[in-house]
Design a protein that fits this description.
By secondary structure, the protein is α+β, with helices and mostly antiparallel strands. The protein contains seven helices and four strands, in the order ααβαβαββααα.
């Protein structure tokens, strides 16, 4: 585990602006292709249409610095009510899913440290995401398989409101598994790769 420090460090962005734009565009394409088009999250379409999602690319692989960036991102979200949700994208961060999964526990501890529990919810996405008791190629893993490692910050109140107004919200995970199983791993891999289609030659 990594030690959480309340000391702030200045963000370090190593990517050129064009590279940052590419990372965000690939992420947006993934959200549209998987989350919206496959309706994996019925609450996402509205926020895409409202353009209320924030995307931040943090090009640093040091876990402590990522924690600082996460803290800054949540603070910004806390002070900007017009931003509904935020994606902290980590192109260089923790390519090994096991390391990323361990880091999620530390990130959750940071939320508890700053008394953000019950106010913000953290969801992890990773190119090699694998749920417990699944095989690496199981289709259901594509629920959380993103183009880059990323931390998704949600407002707890918005999640609760969305669930309260969604019919059979408790069945969403089962419906998602059924949708992904129906498409199959081969089709899902092709759909996932297509998110990079315009950038694979660069």
């Amino acid at each position: 585990r990594w030690t959480i420090s309340v000391e702030r460090s200045r963000r370090r962005y190593h990517q050129e602006p064009s590279s940052i734009d590419t990372t965000v565009n690939i992420t947006r394409r993934w959200i549209n292709s998987f989350v919206v088009d496959l309706n994996l999250c019925p609450f996402a379409r509205r926020e895409v249409m409202r353009n209320s999602m924030r995307f931040t690319v943090f090009e640093d692989s040091e876990p402590t610095n990522i924690l600082h960036a996460l803290s800054e991102e949540i603070t910004l979200l806390h002070n900007s009510q017009d931003i509904e949700t935020s994606f902290l994208i980590l192109p260089a961060g923790m390519p090994d899913f096991r390391d990323f999964n361990d880091f999620l526990d530390t990130a959750q501890s940071l939320i508890e440290l700053f008394d953000w529990e019950g106010i913000y919810q953290l969801v992890g996405f990773h190119p090699l995401y694998q749920f417990a008791d699944t095989e690496p190629d199981d289709a259901e893993n594509y629920t959380n398989r993103s183009p880059f490692p990323m931390l998704h910050i949600l407002r707890e109140s918005s999640v609760s409101d969305a669930i309260a107004t969604t019919h059979d919200a408790a069945l969403i995970p089962q419906r998602n598994i059924a949708t992904l199983d129906r498409l199959g791993t081969i089709a899902l891999k092709a759909r996932w790769r297509s998110c990079f289609a315009d950038h694979q030659a660069t």
